[in-house]
Amino acid sequence: MCGIVGYVGSRNCVPIILEGLKRLEYRGYDSAGIALVKDGLFSIDKKAGKVADLVQHLSHYNGSLSAQLGMGHTRWATHGEPNDINAHPHWDSEEKIAVIHNGIIENYSTIKTKLVREGHVFRSATDTEVLAHLIEEMYKRTQNLASAVRHALAEVEGTYGLVVLSTHESDRMIAARKGSPLIIGVGDGENFVASDAAAIVDHTRQVIYMKDGEVAEITATNIRTMTIDDEDTEREIEEITFELSQIERGGYDHFMLKEIHEQPETITNAMRGRLQVDEGTVVLGGLRDVQDKLLKARRIVITACGTSWHAGLVGEYLFEEIARIPTEVEYASEFRYRNPIINSDDVVFLISQSGETADTLAAGREAKQKGATVLGIVNVVGSTIARESHGGVYVHAGPEIGVASTKAFTSQLTVLSLITLMIARAKGTITEKHAQVLSQELAAIPEKVSRILAKTTEQIKEIAEEFRNAQNFLYLGRGANFPVALEGALKLKEISYIHAEGYPAAEMKHGPIALIDENMPVVFVVPKDGIYEKVISNLQEVKARRGRIIAVANEDDHEIEELADFVIRVPRTYGYFGPIVNIIPLQLLSYYMAVARGTNVDQPRNLAKSVTVE
Ligand code: G6P
Fold it and tell me: Mind listing the pLDDT tens digit for each residue in 12-58?
């Protein structure tokens, strides 16, 4: 969601902060701001729009802007529209304390009313501004910035990752975390704070992941972490695991296209060292301690949001069909608020690219509290969901920057397939021979994905050109390809703003069929599997109503050409692994549709990469 970067040291922090903000823009980006402390004075600039707009605005300083202490923020609006005034940082009445904040202060209105009564004048419509004024009040009492922040936070309900600077103590940053991720970058004679390692990896690979409820006092040479009650906390310095090249576009027009093309490699990485093809076995270190619970699970619940939820739906097919464990999939935002029945022999999987999605995190806490074994399928190493789960499996897709998730999805599906194989072998729901065949099928997928990327791109560009002015799209599939239809539709609406719906193909006749006419493009995911003929009947129903059909079909399907207007060929794959392959052309289609329509592919309007508020 919003992005935070802060610096204290001996270098000029302006380029460090602006570069960091650019690397964070993918998280949320309707406005940006920077606060610098120099010679005991603040200089604060903020601007609606992109970081580039802020940089343009700063050009009036003619390069004279410099400081050794500063912080910057990119905002994704929650309270108050995205304009210059509501952009962060926000400061107190005397302009001596400035705050940047990710998250939501839920009781801000009560605090604000009280502060207004005491004479504080507010400039913005944000919840964040109350923090600056509240800290101002606390500073009057404590005359110590860290204590003032701690005392203020004791009165606050909600979530935050925040950084506070003050001209009262112009050699330090105070950072605090509850619910929104924050890391401290440890340098040599300089230190950093950021909401995402991408912002600081240029400068240091040594980081401390702040824990919920922690406050940190950071100078150039010292870091003290404490609880809100001023108890020292343990610090563990960890290494950032990704390379700088992974967060750069590397010659591609967009991160999304780069990430689509990385999939042969990222799917391989998800299997690397885990799948023993010849034996048909799977080793997953992160599940070793909970293996017993998993094998004895009475039921699996998968909970997630967005694309990760779609991966969960495919997981249901895998777990039920191959591992024979009853499985339910639920939106995390629904699960957390409905007092679900959870038993101690339930296993709850949380699927999350970022590992920080507020609803998924809360659903996991709820399940944990009710006694379930909670396991994460997460991409971002060290993220909160990864830390709070009893065990789990990293998908190892590397940093995903494009807001529309692509490579994380196929890696999630790969990991779900591995977990399924592991359980099925251990429980004996499949034979050794069958497991070997399935393992070979999985191992062959990266090459199939490469083939699709190489062979279908030009054709998909033409299809995108043909349909660039469409107002609606329908995506249909059955079985494990129903979630593929949902994901294909989500990709299209996310980045090209065309209304798109995914449906189980047979369900179409119970409603969506009313929409079909010669202006309605319908995408069918129709591999040659056990229900091929059934999907073909649904396809005929669309054709009879003159809908325009784009079929994702197997290379050896010779019937389909007669029926569909466009056929995108994909290699045959074992049914329940099919979604990993079949989604690739749909990702490309949404990408090239967005390019044809001229939308901002990597930073689509209103969306955020990681949704850390409810
Ligand atoms: C946001 C992103 C989606 C993502 C969803 C869940 O809405 O824009 O791409 O699927 O959050 O995110 P997670 O990090 O938990 O997978």
Answer: 999 999 999 999 887 767 899 999 999 999 999 999 998 999 999 99
Write the single-letter amino acid at 456: T
Residue of 26, 413, 611 to mutate, ligand 1, most atoms within 8 A of C-beta: 611
> What is the distance in angstroms between the CA of the first residue and the CA of the last residue of the chain?
11
**Pocket lining: 357 vs ligand 1, CB cutoff 6 Å:** yes
Which atom of ligand 1 sits closest to the CA of residue 608? Answer: 8
Question: Which atom of ligand 1 lies at the shortest distance from residue 405's CA?
Answer: 9
- Residue 76 makes CB contacts below 8 A (sequence gap 6+) with 1, 2, 27, 28, 29, 30, 608
- Is any atom of ligand 1 closer than 6 Å to the C-beta of 612? no
Task: Find the 612 Cα to ligand 1 centroid distance in Å.
Answer: 10
Backbone angles phi, psi at 568, to 5 degrees: -100, 125
For residue 497, which amino acid is it? Y
Q: Is the CB of 354 under 6 A from ligand 1?
A: yes
Q: What is the CATH number of the domain that holds 258?
A: 3.40.50.10490
**pLDDT per residue as tens digits for the range 503-550:** 999 898 898 888 899 999 999 999 999 899 999 999 999 999 999 999
Q: How far is the CA of 352 from the centre of ligand 1 (A)?
A: 7
More confident site: 609 or 42: 42
The pTM is what?
A: 0.85
Is residue 609 annotated as part of the catalytic site, yes or no? yes
Domain boundary among 240, 264, 297: 240
Pairing mode, strands 173-178 and 160-166: antiparallel
Asked if 385 and 422 sit in the same domain, the reply is: yes
